[in-house]
Amino acid sequence: MSVFPTSLDAINNRIDTLNLADYAQTRNYLKGSVSRLSPYISRGVISLPYILNRILSMNTVDEARTYIYELCWREYFQRIWHVHGDKIFTDFKQVQHPVKHHYMIRSVYEASTGIDGIDREIESLYATGYIHNHVRMYIASMVTNIGKAHWSYPAQWMYYHLLDGDLASNALSWQWVAGTSSSKKYYCNQVNINTYCGTEQTGTFLDHSYEHVMAMDCPDELSETTSPELITVLPSPPALQLDYSKPMLLYNSYTLDPQWRQTEDVNRVLVLEPSHFSHYPVSGKVMEWILTLAKEISGIQIYCGEIHDLPYMKSFPHIISKEHPTTRHYPGIKDPLTWMFPEVPDPTGSFTGFWKRCEKILYRLSPS
Ligand SMILES: Cc1cc2nc3c(=O)[nH]c(=O)nc-3n(C[C@H](O)[C@H](O)[C@H](O)COP(=O)(O)OP(=O)(O)OC[C@H]3O[C@@H](n4cnc5c(N)ncnc54)[C@H](O)[C@@H]3O)c2cc1C
What is the pTM of this model? Predict the structure, then answer.
């Protein structure tokens, strides 16, 4: 069976069989019980409230608390994107310092840093499109805080390869590590990497105390740069066959929900805009993932082009899409975004403050 099956039954089964106690204990370890639900969440196949309800129908809040806390990180980043738009692509709270260049670090790109736990996982990212959260943090720390690269281009490199690529979680997580959206930079060393990656390496450029790593100049192993071209190859679908007497439902690579208005008799079109993918490129593997998920949406057709070039749009009785930062320029009606904690105001400060407010509501909704 595929690591990422696409049927809703298989996804529901993944949620229902999550071992939440194990998750809480082991999520930081490479071999820990993480859910691997992000490739479905990021692409809009399932929403955060959907997962929350399903989990709470089988578990108490206390049992599910750690997992919900992680889901809340996603809600926090999405809501920042929703409010601040493209500001998330610039140094968010403070300017990154010091910065030696705006390129990718060659040894990271080539999976040849010499840190075995990391190199192995970069190879695996290229092969599978998934990488564990802790390794994402290690890579971002090596690139920005130790290698002194600005976070933006390396974040694009990682996004390019991720099946779960999400512009907000990605940019804001890189910024969290680089200290531009958080109060301090995140650092790693070899002992920490060995603990969580199951390696026993010594004598590497990271085999030092935290104090030493934090004071280090860029080591030779991270000094060469590269700027790989990140290009999306869009598919060449057949011409659209549209019925202008029926409403038009527009999907994109972030809104691939097979249950959305499922019973309605409508046109369904997945819009892949060249302008979007030239700003935010994705690999062939990621495009294949998007197209595979789209196959779960009954009757969907694919359109590669700009939304405003779709012919005869005014002829449809309604045009409907899902509200999302990437669909703001779509014509017609928008079905609103859904949050786990809509009562909590959009975040203005730290995640901790946001989580505290969410947690209060969580325990009020479902006492443990
Ligand atoms: C540098 C960096 C880049 C990242 N880029 C992305 C990205 O492009 N897309 C993406 O979805 N996540 C990103 N993350 C967040 C996190 O790494 C992934 O969401 C998580 O690893 C997904 O695997 P999982 O579903 O097995 O996670 P689990 O541990 O099982 O977590 C469950 C869910 O909670 C959410 N979640 C967990 N941790 C985080 C987090 N730190 N931030 C936001 N949401 C979280 C995700 O939706 C995830 O599916 C990034 C993190 C870092 C440090």
Answer: 0.98
